[in-house]
Amino acid sequence: MSNIVYLLFLITLFLSSMTTPSTSATDSFIFGGCSQPKYTPGSAYETAVNSLLTSLVNSAAFTNYNNFTVPGTPASDTVYGLFQCRGDLDNDQCSRCVARAVSQVGTLCYASCGGALQLEGCFVKYDNATFLGVEDKTVVTKKCGPSVGLTSDALTRRDAVLAYLQTPDGTYKTFRSSGSGDFQGVAQCTGDLSPTECQDCVSDAIQRLRTDCGPTSWGEIYLAKCYARYSEGGSHSRGSNDDSSHNDDEIEKTLAILIGLIAGVALIIVFLSFLSKVCEKHKGGK
């Protein structure tokens, strides 16, 4: 009986690990890119990159933004880097997100002198060209919902969300979130920008959202140093472009069925084992 109980424990443990998503919502991939120049594996520059990326991960356990510079000789081997977590994440969530982003950018941009990667919850970037403190409004990625149009009331709520993101209570904020009815929105710039540069970047992103996405139920735009996004009813902007949420539902249903079948089989095994012991006792008593 003890062996059966142990087997059931192992099965439960295994299935529990399967039903736990390997990535959380903050780990969803948004974009990534690498610089054209390459470094020689095993070189001093590779050591500097690894040192910088390690510093990013370590620092993320204590703050949601930081930047580092690892000097090199010659000066062209100096590496600059930063990470930025979404403003509503706690230190633990930020740390996990940055660790995952660093791991992914290290693979994606292997031997590249520079790389950048944006996940749902955080952003990391490194390069041998100075970019810290430099405003950059280059559009990196933009997505809009279907052009089905919004009612006048819905459009008013959407515009109210975007207006607050653009000027939150008339005060400067690196991270802004807003809601109006069933519309939600967030905007953020990287912490290396000055208040004026941050405001300029976020305002530009929001203007592009208004112009490019029009009256849609969701939209998002990521510039090189800031982003802005909104959605109606909590709809996930990338949900219309992939089947990830559908696949996750199917996986969960399949696993639920498997768990039910295995649990049923386990109960039958336990019951048969119990009957066997009863029969043995009965025979021994005769």
Automatic annotation (TrEMBL):
- Superkingdom of this protein's organism: Eukaryota
Q: Where in the cell is it found?
A: Cell junction, Plasmodesma; Cell membrane
> Where would one find the signal peptide in this protein?
1-25
Q: Membrane-spanning residues where? A: 255-276
**UniProt keyword list:** Cell junction, Cell membrane, Disulfide bond, Host-virus interaction, Membrane, Repeat, Signal, Transmembrane, Transmembrane helix, Transport
Q: Could you name the Gene Ontology cellular component terms for this entry?
A: plasma membrane; plasmodesma
Domain Gnk2-homologous, first and last residues per copy? 27-131, 136-235
List each coiled-coil range: none
Chief place of localization? other
Please verify whether the record's keywords include Glycoprotein: no
Answer whether the UniProt record assigns the keyword Cell membrane to this protein. Answer: yes
Q: How does it sit in the membrane?
A: Single-pass type I membrane protein
Q: Which Pfam families match?
A: Stress-antifung
Q: Name one GO biological process term.
A: defense response to bacterium
Report quaternary structure and partners: (Microbial infection) Interacts with Grapevine fanleaf virus (GFLV) 2B-MP.
Q: Which family does it belong to?
A: Belongs to the cysteine-rich repeat secretory protein family. Plasmodesmata-located proteins (PDLD) subfamily.
Q: Which PANTHER family does the entry link to?
A: ANTIFUNGAL PROTEIN GINKBILOBIN-2-LIKE, PLASMODESMATA-LOCATED PROTEIN 6
Name the UniProt record assigns to this protein: Gnk2-homologous domain-containing protein
Q: Lineage of the source organism?
A: Eukaryota, Viridiplantae, Streptophyta, Embryophyta, Tracheophyta
